[in-house]
């Protein structure tokens, strides 16, 4: 089946970390007519070759009108839109508008894994999946698990590596495997998924550039930074407790990170996709862990000199 069946593609959340790269990949592919749906008061700017439609996210009829005539809706929402459960509104509007295929805002660890699905922040994603399954006779869906954002998570320290301070926090001694994907690879994977409905419709697709342990990554960071790093330790159980404590105190961002780290670095493997990935089948080339670390160190050096 060719992707000409799915030519009109609309992206929601095109200004976010993953959304920007998904938008770039879609715009680089001449087989798609690409539209960006954004909130009416958005100050975000988009490439000139993207059609932009602004709507009131609280008005389902307005969203339905914007989605009419679209073949595929891709949600890359995050932040407040995620907490407002915008995906649920978008799915209902997509069904009513006759959209053929909905890709919800997953782009994380395996939300089907009990270690990850038990995190409070994941409930919105789970509700979206249930709603899509309920409407499966009327609209197809694809769930995309990417693991952590490899480049983003190295650059800002989210994955536990502080490149500027040459310090790492190892979870459970850094011995458990996680899978992660760079943002450009996520963009390419989304475009490839739409080109391969025979492989991806109504399925969960696992994508990863690299699967590795923190210990393996640390050895490469020390190699490319040319220095020994300071190592801190925490257990994933303590990270889980810290996450709950932070949320109880109202520090949602810190709490979210504590919960996420406890899930992805635990031995239960909520973000370990070894043997499950579809990169080869979809023709999405992978970035090696060594390349990702080397480039992260180079970006850090370049930023330090500016």
TrEMBL record:
Question: Is Transport there in the keyword field?
Answer: no
Q: Which GO terms describe its molecular function?
A: oxidoreductase activity
Q: Does the keyword Membrane feature in the UniProt annotation?
A: no
Keywords attached to this Swiss-Prot or TrEMBL record, sorted alphabetically, are: NADP, Oxidoreductase
User: Sorted alphabetically, which InterPro entries does this protein's record hold?
Assistant: NAD(P)-bd_dom_sf, NmrA-like, NmrA/Isoflavone_reductase-like, PCBER-like
Name recorded for this polypeptide: NmrA-like domain-containing protein
User: Origin organism of this chain?
Assistant: Adineta steineri
- Specify the domain of life of the species encoding this protein: Eukaryota
- The NmrA-like domain extends over 7-242
One Pfam family here: NmrA
């Amino acid at each position: 089946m060719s992707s000409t069946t799915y030519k009109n593609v609309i992206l929601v959340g095109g200004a976010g970390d993953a959304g920007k790269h998904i938008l770039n990949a879609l715009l680089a592919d001449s087989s798609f007519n690409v539209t960006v749906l954004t909130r009416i008061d958005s100050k975000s700017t988009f490439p000139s070759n993207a059609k932009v439609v602004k709507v009131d996210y609280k008005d389902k009829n307005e969203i339905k009108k914007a989605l009419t005539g679209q073949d595929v809706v891709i949600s890359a929402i995050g932040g407040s839109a995620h907490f407002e459960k915008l995906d649920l509104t978008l799915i209902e509007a997509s069904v009513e508008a006759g959209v053929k295929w909905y890709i919800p805002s997953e782009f994380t660890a395996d939300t089907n894994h009990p270690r990850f699905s038990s995190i409070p922040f994941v409930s919105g994603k789970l509700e979206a999946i249930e709603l899509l399954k309920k409407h499966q006779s009327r609209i197809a869906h694809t769930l995309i698990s990417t693991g952590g954002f490899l480049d983003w998570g190295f650059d800002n320290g989210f994955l536990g590596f502080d490149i500027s301070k040459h310090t790492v926090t190892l979870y459970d001694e850094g011995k458990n495997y996680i899978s992660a994907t760079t943002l450009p690879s996520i963009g390419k994977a989304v475009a490839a998924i739409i080109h391969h409905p025979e492989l991806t419709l109504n399925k969960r697709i696992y994508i990863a550039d690299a699967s590795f342990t923190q210990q393996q990554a640390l050895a490469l960071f020390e190699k490319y930074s040319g220095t020994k790093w300071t190592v801190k330790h925490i257990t994933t159980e303590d990270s889980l407790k810290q996450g709950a404590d932070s949320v109880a105190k109202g520090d949602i961002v810190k709490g979210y990170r504590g919960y996420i780290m406890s899930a992805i670095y635990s031995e239960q493997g909520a973000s370990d996709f070894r043997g499950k990935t579809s990169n080869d089948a979809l023709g999405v080339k992978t970035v090696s862990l060594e390349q990702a670390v080397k480039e992260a160190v180079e970006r850090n050096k370049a930023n330090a000199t500016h």
